[in-house]
Protein 1
Amino acid sequence: MEQLLSQRISNARPSFIREVLKVADNPGIISFAGGLPNPTLFPVAALKQASAAILDEEGEAALQYTATEGHGGLRRWIAERYRATQNLDIDPGQILITNGSQQALDLIGKVLLDAGDGVVIEQPGYLGAIQALTLYQPQFLPVALDDDGIDCEGLRHALDNGRPKLLYTVPNFQNPSGISYSERRRREVAALLAGRKVLLIEDNPYGELRFGGAVPTSFHALLPQQTLLLGSFSKIVAPSLRLGWIVAPHWLLQKLIIAKQAADLHTNGFSQRLLHRYLRDNDIDRHIAAITEVYGRQKAAMEQAIAHYLPAGVRITAPQGGMFLWAELPPQVSALRLFEAALENGVAFVPGHPFYVDRDDSNTLRLNYTNADTATIDDGIRRLGAALKTLMS
Ligand SMILES: Cc1ncc(COP(=O)(O)O)c(C=O)c1O
């Protein structure tokens, strides 16, 4: 019966991370593998209050079908936030509320990609984007990242030779590497794309989780007609609400709305009202400051532990925000073999290869620091260091 499956799904790889997370969940294992926000920071009491207020005051309307584009107040709130935090001029009419930013990736694939179309992707890149776009059978054109962003020589080559429709980027505190594009690199990338028939996806779920440094220039400011901005409330409020959005030029937004209508009619209307009420009645800046204070401390604890317990040949990125660190082991060390040794020592991480479109193993790995307290982080990195020393000896 499996011959009944479409080519599209037959070609999709099962998620390696899901397998990793299953073993990482075993009792006694310290896990740096997941990508979960710290649940102690979820605003449970405020959401409870907002939820009761909506049912009391908006009752039936909150439970009715609603517009595909999304809740008007929430779309206006998002536009206003872009203005206040990044001085971006975005019309609420350009915003489509999605079921998490993950759905935005799926809708973009559905609306823009035919089989074989080129998609430039950062290497390493966000696994969920690779997975979502794979279902539209594109030709991935991987381009390396360095500490300042995507490599411009590689990008130029991919643009000239692969004739891609899309460039997918996570310019702030990237998943998996934690790196952010420098100002200069942003301008170089924009200059390379300007005038070409290619759209840049600026996926930015982590931008507000900043520990220090100035807010950088959005690609949307540099290339307004060619940029699709993706945002999410998953990391600043709660992921289970499944609320994200896409900002797109009008010609494309119309098509995305048709695709979304066909997929699910609209994003959960109660969730949208709940979030809008929460944002209206609470100080989101204070909430975000509380999150970044905790994550900043956890990141510093992980960096210190790495300096203490891991051999000098291990190179790590230095993120100024977000949820992940990326480590590069000496070239001969397999992250998959380290993963097995680390599990035996009671610690888990994600080996780097699933973040590449063309590798079965690598000497890289992703470490999440948001989901363990600082003492646990120290213990976990100590265990990792011991596993690595055994493997290298
Ligand atoms: C870069 C990136 N994009 C998109 C998502 C999806 O987020 P959500 O669908 O919860 O908004 C994630 C989740 O971890 C992510 O890391």
Protein 2
Amino acid sequence: MSESVATEKVRTNRSIREDLTTHLLNEVQKARPASEDPTESELANMADALLRDSLRERATDIHLDPQSGGCRVRFRIDGVMHDAALLTVSQGNRLINQFKTMADIDPVHMFFPEEARRTYDFGDREIDLRVTMAPCLSGTKMAIRMLDPENVEHRIDDLGLGEVNLSQLKDWMENLHGMFVVAGPTGCGKTTTLYALLHELKQRARNILTIEDPVEYQIDGINQMQVNDRHRFTFAEGLKVMLRLDPDYMMVGEIRDPASANIAVDASIKGRVLMTTIHAVDAVGAITSMRNWGVRDHEMGTAVTVVVTQRLLRKLCPHCKYADKPTDLDQQWLEALRLPVPSEVWHAHGCEECSQLGYRGRTGAFEVWRLQEDDYALILAHADDHTIRQHLRIKGHTTLAMHALQKVEQGITSLDELKTFSGFAAPVVRR
Ligand SMILES: [Zn+2]
């Protein structure tokens, strides 16, 4: 098939990318018609083919969505959902039942949400599968999250921090003390950053303890505990246990309530090194979150040493990207955010190397706030978010938006990718 014909085929199928599920569709075609019961091996082959397709495409999640007249198969790749196939109702049900069997979920159980885990061998890698099913009006929906240990062996040098941010982080690691907070919304890579720090710290032969929900990846040489709400083993309880276990470094997967916030801050004040994440729009927003949980300004001023905020940006495919002049709309968007307009911005056509997506892999955009005396003074004076952000801008602090724009200028990502982030612009808009 010539390249132009291949491109045409993809264009006509733009809404459903069947080229992402070639193994699955092949197995579906080979299976018996819906009027006959499928054999066990046919079912196993279909499930296996779907997992192989998704892993080949570097998907992190598979969704099987029942809808009127069919079952939609979708992949999340680099954070973005793609329609990958449309199966018939009976094909979709067969596949969902097979995954239930694989995950030891009772096949007749369909009225309550269920969760299960199992591992899947993919070549020489062992993939951790988290299967979640939920009864929806149109039928049973299934989502499969795939955790690949290969995706987490990141060194902090590989996160995309850039020279200035990286040196700030390394500076903290050289003089370990206080609380290291990664702030951001769900799915922005906060946990990956903490895991990268843990990998670095475990080289130092110290006692490292974590409490997580869930433990996404097991790291040799680190004592990881899992939150268990059913047994009231919360982040706060985990923190108390960690403190009794003589920790050198502690990691709390997330601070999300007053109890864990106050214990964490108290431990940091008493000299413990603690790393954690907080849901907040940006670095300064983490301070407000802690205030809302009842942490007092003078406690924060003593405990918090670094706040990082980040977003994950899809990287343009190096094989098909091209530069162009920014459009009038691009200019207006950037000017509204008081960001400089680059002379050129980058796009991608889509090619075989990137499965026609135009992007391949992700990198982080970061803001690293290493708190200084003047910052602490503002916190102690109970300055609000806006005042602290203005103060940081005036003293030349590199914001998240600025770091992301550097990646646009370098052609690592596109301006379109930046625009997709909700809340991204909030820290830099003048009020
Ligand atoms: Zn490409």
